[in-house]
Write a structure and sequence with these properties.
By secondary structure, the chain is of the alpha+beta class. It has six helices and six strands. It has a three-stranded antiparallel sheet. A three-stranded antiparallel sheet has the order 4-5-6.
């Protein structure tokens, strides 16, 4: 990002890539796909912590704020409870999520999160997506569980 672009962005939105957690009194900078925190109690208050966080943000190159994956890869599906994921070894799949009541809870108040995975490598992107959507619908309808 050129200095002119940074100046324009600061004029339009001076706190871009900064956020305050008022409960914890921590300023956060989102960069390199992770969060960097600046605690007010360690830096002499909210305003000094903001100044340090801003200085840190301003010292980073523009690449620090780029998404690791293109937006289309990060987008969720149109179906509720179905999303595309990539595991730690790079295998991409569609995952169907739903919840059901915990059978071990005598009051019937606790829930268990359930998931079913459909490999894109095995089924192809469209077929894996369709299987995930259908499986989730069946789990909710036939098994009588919640979304």
């Amino acid at each position: 990002m050129t200095p002119e672009q940074r100046k324009l962005l600061d004029e339009l939105e001076p706190d871009h890539h900064l956020s305050l957690d008022p409960k914890r009194k921590v300023w956060r900078v989102y960069a390199y796909g992770t969060t960097h925190q600046f605690a007010a109690n360690k830096l002499g208050g909210i305003e000094p912590a903001k100044a340090v966080a801003k200085a840190f943000r301003d010292s980073l190159p523009a690449a620090a704020f780029e998404l690791k994956k293109p937006l289309l890869e990060q987008a969720r599906s149109k179906a509720v409870g179905v999303r595309k994921c990539t595991n730690s070894i790079g295998v991409t799949y569609w995952r169907a999520d739903w919840v059901e009541l915990d059978p071990t809870d005598p009051l019937g108040q606790r829930i268990k999160k359930k998931s079913k995975y459909f490999s894109i490598q095995e089924y192809g992107d469209k077929e894996a997506y369709n299987r995930a959507v259908k499986y989730r619908e069946r789990a909710i309808f036939e098994l009588g569980v919640g979304g």
